[in-house]
Write a structure and sequence with these properties.
The structure holds two protein chains of two kinds. By secondary structure, chain A is α+β, with helices and mostly antiparallel strands. In chain A, 24% of the residues lie in helices and 33% in strands. Chain A contains eight helices and 21 strands. Chain A has a six-stranded mixed β-sheet, with helices on both faces. A four-stranded antiparallel β-sheet of chain A has the order 2-1-4-5, covered by helices on one side. Chain A has a four-stranded antiparallel β-sheet with strand order 11-15-20-21. In chain A, helix 2 packs parallel to helix 4 and helix 3 packs across helix 4. Chain B has one domain: MetI-like (MetI-like fold, Orthogonal Bundle), CATH 1.10.3720. Chain B has a two-stranded antiparallel sheet with strand order 1-2. In chain B, helix 1 packs across helix 12. Chain B is globular, with a radius of gyration of 24 Å. The chains are: A alpha+beta, B mainly alpha. At the A-B interface, strand 6 and helix 2 of A face helix 8 and helix 9 of B.
């Protein structure tokens, strides 16, 4: 168990990187607290797997350091870091039994047989695979294979961190939920730091206490799922989290007021700093409602997704989504939309630029 | 109600005709010869299973069969491990991959009798590159037209040179199909190089290795052209493998009956060994 510190981390896959565009990771400074459940969330190619491989030691970063409990491990090979990693596709040793698979990391480290046996059985019990222990691992179903991969990570009780690299990609949808809650439960029982890489917001938000959102090799925001949802620090987070994502509407700022389609839109609080070249209003569809005296628009599309309806309206030249329960105007009709002021924020050049509503 | 018609037969017909002319009819001709005696003039006399009985008691056949198994055993024992080692040491990516692959494929592209002729000239004691080097530079007495051991060594080295590439290419194909995650997981699990080979690489190569061994067994067991061109079966009968002996009986002595009986036994052994081997190797997979 250890606290993991990343300091000034940069990585490029090119031999002679010149500009920032050559870097898959640009300047990462981050602390992972001991025993935390973290998710690393971002679109494909944002650098999250690179970051994971650097922590596990499969990659050595171009610049910067990784510290485990203040000890520099930047150049230490993976097997000496005491970490575990679960990969996208289940890695199992086909010719071995499930028991031998789980015992493999312990036996490689010379743990005595009695201890191996006890530990393997304990982990098998946690994963609910006890009855599979004597089976050949090659005959297992994908979800059981992935469970065994996880088990191999958890079987050592001295691991500093367990990392999951999109581990549910190959699992059937109805089993995803089960495995995900299993993981959450394991985290509580084992108490090891866990880092879960995914591009699926549901997976990230259900698993983690803290979500790290990445884009283009940069950490955009770190926060609890609620924080990320309610107050995205960047329009990217607003877009990426939520379904549909946050409405981001180009606006004009005049005398501390945001004008959208020529109408003054009340914001959560005063605007901070000077607004850059690009000013946008951000409001989640959940906080847009139909009501008299709102912004005037026309309904472009209505989607009924069961629990509620998603309305897409055109106001001026922008499209605004709203999540509506109950009666909904038909396509092509005029509609008036109201934004909940305490959830309406201003973004300057992509970054949040309003003070939160007064506490 | 299911409609029934006989159209399907027309679709199978081409294959049936092909197999008939390609395998069944020639094979039945051989079966026909194997139970008869002929003195030419297209006159045949019924002989029953006499040829088979004689053959089973023939020292000449036993000796040729023994040499054949020895040869196949030796080349498999060399080519399979050597092929695996070469495949393991080949680069997985980058500039050198095509270079290695083409270099490896080259020996297999050479016609078989050219391989025999090449090695024949290569090993001539006074003018061949290898023969001259061994005799006149290293001072080793080497003449495969006189020394049976030298002849055997030459035939084996030639076959290894010619066919190890096949094993290499098949193993390499098996190796490159292993995802990186396996190696990364093994690294994290603290596996030694031997464990990586034993538990990741070898199992992933098992299927291609089965095919490689099967192909090399069948090819080497039926080998004719290269040793025939290289040594002609000599010195004496020392490198007379089964097929060379068979051709001697069939075309040299024109004993069609015994030769036909021998072909059938030869075929049966090849088939039996291949079938046994394949069944044993794939037994686990179907479970």
């Amino acid at each position: 168990m250890a606290k993991i510190t990343l300091s000034g981390l940069r990585h490029s896959y090119l031999p002679n990187p010149t500009g920032p565009e050559d870097y898959a990771l640009k300047e990462i400074d981050l602390d992972w607290d001991d025993g935390g459940a973290y998710a690393l969330l971002g679109p494909s190619g944002c650098g999250k797997s690179t970051l994971l491989n650097i922590i596990s030691g499969l990659l050595i970063p171009s610049d910067g350091q990784i510290l485990f409990d203040d000890k520099d491990v930047t150049e230490v090979p993976p097997d000496q870091r005491n970490i575990a990693q679960v990969f996208q596709f289940p890695v199992i040793y086909d010719t071995m039994t499930v028991f031998d698979n789980l015992a493999f990391p312990l036996r490689n480290r010379g743990v005595d047989a009695a201890r191996v046996d006890a530990r393997v059985r304990e982990i098998a019990q946690m994963l609910e695979v006890v009855e599979l222990l004597d089976m050949r691992a090659s005959g297992l179903s994908p979800d059981n294979k992935q469970k065994i991969s996880m088990g191999r990570g958890l079987v050592r009780d001295d691991v500093n961190v367990v990392m999951f690299d999109e581990p549910l990609t190959v699992i059937d949808p109805h089993l995803k939920w089960k495995l995900r809650s299993k993981l959450k439960e394991l985290h509580q029982r084992v108490g090891a730091t866990m880092i879960y890489v995914t591009h699926d917001q549901t997976e990230a938000l259900t698993f983690a206490d803290q979500v790290v959102v990445m884009d283009l090799g940069v950490i955009v925001q770190i926060g609890t799922p609620v924080e990320l949802f309610e107050r995205p620090a960047h329009t990217f987070v607003g877009h990426f989290i939520g379904s549909p994502g946050m409405n981001v509407l180009p606006c004009e700022v005049r005398d501390g007021h945001a004008l959208f389609d020529g109408v003054d839109v009340p914001l959560e609080g005063p605007i901070t700093g000077t607004v850059g070249t690009k000013a946008e209003i951000g409001i989640r569809p959940e906080f847009v409602s139909i009501g008299r005296g709102g912004l005037k628009g026309r309904v472009r599309k209505v989607a009924d997704i069961g629990r509620h309806k998603i309305l897409e309206a055109v106001i001026g030249e922008s499209r605004v989504s709203a999540i509506i329960e109950g009666e909904i105007p038909a396509q092509g009709e005029a509609v008036e939309l109201k934004f909940k002021p305490e959830q309406t924020r201003l973004y300057s050049d992509g970054w949040i630029a309003t003070e939160p509503a007064g506490d | 109600m299911k409609t029934q018609n006989q159209k399907a037969w027309f679709f199978v017909l081409p294959v049936l005709v092909l197999v008939a002319f390609n395998a069944l009819i020639p094979m039945m001709t051989v079966v026909n010869y194997s139970v008869q005696e002929t003195f030419g003039n297209n006159q045949f006399f019924w002989q029953g299973l006499d040829w088979f009985e004689q053959l089973m008691r023939s020292d000449r056949f036993h000796a040729a069969l023994g040499r054949q198994f020895l040869f196949t055993g030796i080349i498999l024992a060399i080519e399979i491990p050597l092929g695996i080692v070469i495949a393991l040491s080949m680069p997985r990516s980058g500039f050198w991959v095509p270079v290695c692959l083409v270099t490896m494929a080259l020996p297999m592209l050479i016609p078989w009798n050219v391989v025999g002729a090449m090695w024949n000239i290569f090993t001539l004691p006074d003018i061949g590159l290898l023969g001259y080097f061994l005799n006149h530079v290293l001072g080793v007495h080497y003449n495969m037209t006189q020394d049976p051991v030298a002849a055997w060594v030459t035939v084996i080295v030639m076959d290894v040179w010619h066919w190890t590439s096949l094993v290499v290419l098949l193993c390499y194909a098996g190796l490159v199909s292993i995802p990186d995650a396996y190696y990364q997981a093994a690294k994290i699990d603290g596996a030694s190089n031997w464990s990586v080979f034993r538990y990741i690489q070898l199992p992933k190569m098992k299927q291609v290795l089965t095919i490689a061994i099967l192909l090399r067994f069948m090819d080497s067991f039926n080998i004719y052209t290269e040793p025939f061109v290289l040594t002609g079966g000599g010195p004496g009968n020392s490198t007379t493998l089964l097929s060379i002996d068979l051709v001697k009986i069939a075309l040299g002595q024109f004993d069609l009956g015994p030769a036909a009986a021998m072909s059938l036994i030869y075929f049966a052994i090849t088939l039996l060994v291949s079938w046994l081997f394949y069944t044993l190797m794939t037994k686990d997979d179907t479970k």
